[in-house]
Structure formats: C-alpha cells, structure tokens
Amino acid sequence: MRPHSSAIRYRRRALQMGLRTLSAKTGIHRSHLSRVERGLAGLSAENIEKVADALGVTPDDITHKETP
Questions:
Q1: Which string of b and e fits 19-45 if b means at least 16 CB within 10 Å?
Q2: Are the C-beta atoms of residues 55 and 11 closer than 8 Å to each other?
Q3: What is the rounded CA–CA span in Å between residue 66 and residue 26?
Q4: 3, β-bridge pairs
Q5: Residue 12 phi/psi, 5° resolution?
Q6: What pLDDT digit, counting tens, does each position of 32-45 carry?
Q7: Inter-CA distances, 44 with 14, 15, 62, 66, Å
Q8: How is residue 30 annotated by DSSP?
Q9: What is the pTM of this model?
Q10: C-alpha span between 25 and 40 (Å, rounded)
Q11: Among 17, 21, 48, 67, which is most exposed with the fewest C-beta within 10 angstroms?
C-alpha cells in the first residue's frame, strides 16, 4: 500500500487537526508525517493503519489502489 498524500492532508485539515496532534495520536514523528503529506516519504502498512485510525477513516481511504 502506498499512502495517498493529498487524501491524508485533506482529511487532517477537514478535522482541523495539526501535524502535532496527528503525530501524538500515531506515534509517527511530525516531520515524517509532513514528508508523507508532501509525497516525499511513505508509510509502512502498520503506520497507514495508525494514521487511518487517527483520522477516522479506513486504510483504503488514504492509500492508492494498486493494480496487479
């Protein structure tokens, strides 16, 4: 799974959640989350689950659908 950076940023902003709050909820460093949102870094499947949970969405909502 690859994180969909704009979907993560859009949902976080819709919730009026800062990167610090998302970082605190997920245990992922704020600077790494910033890079993810800019499309410069990825997330492990485990961390995608953490971010999705913190944002109140499913992992599918914040990942690219990969085709075989």
A1: beebbeebebeeebbeebbeeeeebee
A2: yes
A3: 24
A4: 63
A5: -60, -45
A6: 999 999 999 999 99
A7: 24, 23, 13, 15
A8: H
A9: 0.90
A10: 21
A11: 67
Give strand ranges (E) for the chain. 2-3, 63-64
**Cβ within 8 Å of residue 47, ≥6 positions away:** 26, 28
- Enter the tokens of residue 52: 């999705």
Q: How many Cα neighbours within 13 Å face the side chain of 18?
A: 3
Amino acid at 10: Y
Radius of gyration of the CA atoms of the chain, in A: 11
Give the model confidence (pLDDT) of 16-33 as tens digits. 999 999 999 999 999 999
Q: Which amino acid is at 60?
A: D
Which residue, among 55, 61, 62, has the nearest Cα to 13 in the 3D structure? 55
